[in-house]
Amino acid sequence: MPHGTQHADVAPAELEAALLGGPFHVALRAAITARGLPLQRVQHHLSRYGVRVGVTSLSYWQQGARRPQRPESLRAVRALEEILQLPDESLIRLLTSADDPAGADRPPGRSYRSLVEASGALEHLLAELGSPLDCGVHSIGHHERVRIGRRRELLARESQHIVRAHADHVDRFVAVHHGDPGCRPDRVGVHALENCRTGRVRWHEDTGVLAAELLFDTSLRTGDTFLFRYAFEDGTADASREYLRGFACAGGQYALQVSFDEEALPVRCHRFAQHSAAAPRSGRQELSLSGRHRSVHLVEQRVRAGVVGIGWDWE
């Protein structure tokens, strides 16, 4: 890990306060000044981490004229935390909170750690089922409907999925449910609704991850398309505050609709996106709750690798 020396112009307490309260550009400037590093040296250290960022960009970042948003820029921010000897997530956290001004008053969403643990649990479950991550298909279209109950819990979610096989002899799909904190995956119901039937079901208790095998009544050949529908019935977890969907690679259309019980309506809803589970959230867009149907939705005409979702605030 590169090391620097403490610069006299920034006291440790001042740097600590900047890292705690932000904003991002103030904390970055304070950290660079505290280490006594000119921007050319910071750029040199970043290149040793395999990250290419121009001196002009670094200058803009610490002035607040621009914010790191692209995947390469976010990699640079994580490298800067090491180069400048800062606590893990200290700069990334400020980027996230800056993207969401109301974030200080909102309970946090799923943490990076929880997503990583869930990913590890899912790999184990898929290995048990002998299934690759993509199940041998590409998604052409996916429409999800999520229902939030009167206890503010994720009550159920239904998926209509259209896929195209990229291999021969594809006769099943593994659907995944990642429950909210407190979820009891052993009590989650799996329902095969159209053009499929339920096969083996496996779950991981600690992370609330459940993997369900959906068996097709036909064997797909490369290039074949297939439409099927399934649902998960949950209602076992604590209050839900968001629903997100991760995509390992770019794909077809994705639509997400979240509806709320009339006795449990959120005060506001918003769309968000992430380049990866480790990246800060971006693309925040307020969503208006429709009166009669008490729902909000988003549509991605062509999904990109990363995460997209809807979050909401309770009163």
Feature tags:
single chain, 315 residues, alpha+beta, 434 Repressor (Amino-terminal Domain), Immunoglobulin-like, 2 domains, six-stranded mixed beta sheet, four-stranded antiparallel beta sheet, 7 helices, 35% strand, globular, disordered N terminus
Outline the structure in words.
- The chain has helices spanning about 10-20, 25-35, 40-50, 55-65, 70-85, 90-100, 110-130; strands spanning about 135-150, 155-165, 170-180, 190-195, 195-205, 210-220, 225-235, 240-245, 255-260, 270-275, 280-285, 295-300, 305-315.
- The protein is built from seven helices and 13 strands.
- The radius of gyration is 22 Å and the shape is globular.
- Residues about 1-10 and about 100-110 have low confidence and may be disordered.
- β5 (about 195-205) and β6 (about 210-220) form a beta hairpin.
- The strands form three sheets. It has a six-stranded mixed β-sheet with strand order 4-7-2-1-9-12, with no helix packed on it.
- The protein folds into two domains: about 10-100, 434 Repressor (Amino-terminal Domain), CATH 1.10.260; about 110-315, Immunoglobulin-like (Sandwich), CATH 2.60.40.
- It has about 325 residues and is an alpha+beta fold.
- It starts with 11 loop residues before the first helix and ends with a strand.
